[in-house]
Fold these 2 entries.
Entry 1:
Amino acid sequence: MRNPQLNANGELTHLLSIEGLPREVITQILDTASSFLKVSHRDVKKVPLLRGKSVFNVFFENSTRTRTTFEIAAKRLSADVINLDVTRSSTAKGETLLDTVDNLVAMHADMFVVRHAASGAPHLIADHLRRLGREDVHVVNAGDGRHAHPTQGLLDMYTIRHYKKEFANLVVAIVGDIQHSRVARSDLHALTTLGAAEVRAVGPKTLLPTAIEKMGVRVCHDLCSGIRDCDVVIMLRLQNERMNGALLPSAREYFRCYGLTPTVLALARPDAIVMHPGPMNRGVEIDSDVADGPQAVILPQVTFGIAVRMAVMGILAGN
Amino acid sequence: MNAHKTPLAIELPDAEALCVHLAELIRPRLQPDTVVVGIHSGGAWVAQRLHTLLGLDSEIGLIDVSFYRDDYRARGLHPRVKPSSIPFDVEGRTLILVDDVLYTGRTTRAAINELFDYGRPARIQLAVLADRGSRQLPICADFCPWRVDLDPSSELVLSLDDSGRLQWSLDEHA
């Protein structure tokens, strides 16, 4: 079966998931992003690449931050950006996902940035466009269910590469609610493809997917052993609803066992970096002294995220 | 009859000697605030040579015009785009834009557009090692030591040899 993200020439035409992306494609996106990073430092923070193109942000699930970063990225590429709060309009009136897509295609959309609570929704749209013969319309997955959040995974890889240069000797710990995290899944696939030496999944049993070892990761239920001697710590957000779902006793107890404090971080390598996809819960998964400390690269992640999204859209729209 | 010269009839000049010649063309018109900006990748090499030969103090600017090309729709984004780096304020300055080969003029157009996104220079002059004719835009070089009329099937390529010297070659396309 053909990779649904690639066109007949093997070029990236949709970004649906990091899983299945060839290493060269990931590297090309990261390399391109470093050129876009410089654009944001200029007098005119725009390039004319997507001039005349219409990018539709179609968010079936709320996410102001992700939507905003995609909007900034598209605007810096000179695209026209249309934000659709579909949860409050068409979907609420009973329109199906593909009918919404057809309507937007009829409005001459060139790209969809899709966030959906259902895993596989962006894939369904890409598949639908192919059946319509509209391979000139591109889809970017901005997070689907528990499945994937590929641009977050890519910006995490960009951040790691920026600070650590190579992946080959890196030990990376992903800490927290991996079970419900599409970010964690995207990071795991990316780190595996880029050849990180060791990836650790750290968290309580209730928040780790079963058989996660099969993804080639080392499972640690103890935070200290999970952090020890690692080069990169990726903290995940603990969603409040997990507490209600009886997966955890309380936020305070979670912090005591899995919260990243300066004492725990001291077990990692002295030059280890701390990442977080945001929004952070201070005092739940991360201590403020770590979040604001010298090893945190959480705000650079946000800056890199714009450049990575510019690279993704710039590459897709040209293929 | 084809008015272009056939590739076999062309003797390719020494590229390093052309750089010296180009520097001599520029020298009398240098302003105190002149900076050079090389277009990636051939133009960047030539800009390095000019920077040394002219003894310029200011840093070299480098640009990759991939984000400004007019063939993006047809060819997509170049897979090996390099970051542009303009480590000085272009506002009110004299910039010498440097490329290896001037051909259709489209790369020059893209480069000028990009430079204006850094500010408003006082003037931009164009220095090229070779002008191979066949312009498609109203663009001409201010400084050029070698003019040659080439068939569109030929590609004039500047590269670095093993010892780091610049050299010309002619690639034939079907």
Note: The mean pLDDT of chain B is 93.
Entry 2:
Amino acid sequence: MSDKDIDEHSGVDTTGHEWDGIKELNNPLPRWWVIVFYITIIWSVVYWVLMPSWPGITGYLKGTRNHSERENVTVQMAALDAERAESTQRLIAAPSLEAIESDPALHQFAMAAGASLFGDNCATCHGAGGQGFKGYPNLNDDAWLWGGSLDQIKHTITVGRRSLHPETTNTLMMAYGRDGLLTRDQINDLVDYVSFISGQAEETEAATRAAPLFASQCASCHGADGTGDQIQGAPNLTDAIWLFGGDRATLYETLWNGRAGVMPAWDERLSEEEIIALSVYVHSLGGGE
Amino acid sequence: MDKAAGTNASGGVERINVEPINSPENRTLYKAREAIYPKRVSGKYRRLKWVIMVLTLGVYYILPWVRWERGANEPDQAILVDFAGSRFYFFAIEIWPDELYYVTGLLILAALGLFLATALFGRIWCGYTCPQTVWTDLYIAVERMIEGDRNKRMKLDKAPWSTDKIMKKVSKHTIWILIGMATGGAWIFYFHDAPTIAAQFFKGQAPFTAYFYCALLTMTTYIFAGSMREQVCTYMCPWPRIQAALTDEDTLQVTYKKDRGEPRGPHKKGDSWDGRGDCVSCRACVAACPMGIDIREGAQLECINCALCIDACDDIMAKVDRPLSLIGYDTDANMARREAGEKPKFNYIRPRILVYSVMLVLVASVMSWTLFSRATVNLNVIRDRTPPFVKLSDGSVRNAYTVKIVNRDNVERTFLLDVKGPPEMVVSAAGDNFEENNHQVVVLDDSVRSIRLFVTLPPEALDKASLPISVTARDIATGEEALNPTTFITGGR
């Protein structure tokens, strides 16, 4: 294109491209746009020099600012820890966990820390509000397998239950049916008996028949009156709360297959102050003893 | 005077060689901006504009340094937008983020005030107080001080580069950038304690955002007032479009009184004024216009009503010994009245004025009432949703509530929590020695306290699916109360 092809209507040069008599005008880009475009090119060169940019065989070009997001996160986390240091120190230094609960400021700190820890670590099994699921205890109610005092909750979180921790407790509900310890009929009688002592059914002949069986087979853990034993983690069979279910089918299943729910130990995953905060949080959910 | 560019059109008054570059016939849609070189004027409106410039800029620059005593734990800056502490301070008023509706109310008030002022006096906001106008005016004053008035500036821009030109341009842009920096600098003082952030700023210890916003406002001031100027008003601002709906034929606007001015034409000294208008076609009004228009073409979108053409014209009218105010504040209705031989009058009692006034008074009253009767205690009771209710071992049911007591006062206060519900209900709280304190809760000054409250109902009281209960927090010293009704979910039946 040596000759300029000026459009007669607008007085603007055309690109020479024509479609069915319609010509494309050759309006220049706005100057500010072109300037910004060149600035971005210059900026990209500056960015290569300053920031990590080119990948290499064994690593990458780090840039003069030696920028690293990973290190920044570490620094920010350390700064956050330093900011919280005073409160976390007070958590550890508190004479007892009860003392934390009766100090309003410290209690709120523990609750806030506990809530986020609970969401990250505990909610998967116990539910977002600690409401529990079948086999995973509800932490809001007042029935505790292993005790609901602040220190007992802290111990449970630290060593877990039936976990790999050496100090954990490994007692379990045996598989009476599957292992041939009791017959089908005996188990059916015991289901009647447990339904009776938990107030769900009238006393039946079968229940009366099962009373001595309960005393010999079950009372060592669940107690002679069936109210359970927190040392062995044996649930109270006379209250309204069931971990797996209190209906006949579930009771039969429990007796036949046994139960051995596991809670992992958290002492390696969480720090001392985190476990303290979590204990206070769980205790304050409502069920704490 | 304008000897170089002007042609002598008549005895005494010179005709200035100037084209209104933004008038409709001169402005095509696709055209680069042509520079406007507004000519210096003097007169009463120019003086008024200087006074308003000093006032508005003074308020903007000085206000963050004004102190206001609020007590030991509170900042003492009169106006402070404290993002870190999530508070907004305005003299005696302190609002929390949840009270942002006060700001909404303030904006509505400002809008109504603007509507009313515009309906009465046209674009006085644009002409006198808009930051774009004020800073552009300041930038033009600096430009004029360094490069001289209209003709000298035009000549300088056309001249080839020389030491003198470089010196002038460099010093002008330096002062412009310094003004821009003062603007951006003052801006950040509204968001931090001014003396502290000022010291930090110069030591290089201020937060990144402070430097960022300072740089941003420096840049916008420099670009908007330095090079974009009238384009901001014409192309970027929505207000010129809206104002057409707010003004009517009785609105006072900067007007060329064509009934008096036409037919226009050059006038020689000693000529008769019979059979002709007062306009001598000197174009002083066009030369003075910072928007590059000709006011004699009537009301235009571009006109910001800055009134500089009034001063320019009055100057000429005094010279040719005609009455002043050929261009002046006037209404379209008056122009029609004069043409019909009636007496002009300013009709300020109009339906839209009444509506705006009533609305303004109404909103202002509601605002002041809510502000003066603002509660210093708030209570939020949030019922747990996971789980909605908890069955206890004896068959009773418990609901948990997060109770937030908001103490907006600057003193520590003790509140008594009173829960009303079925008589069988048992109330307790997590930790805090709630029972021993007889349900009393201490809330620190200017803060929120959360309590986990438990309400338990025995099995015999659970005959409905849900029951209404209510929580009241009462200040035991002042008796001020906040009530929050909620429900109890029994989980059955």
Note: Residues 1-10 of chain B have pLDDT under 50 and may be disordered.
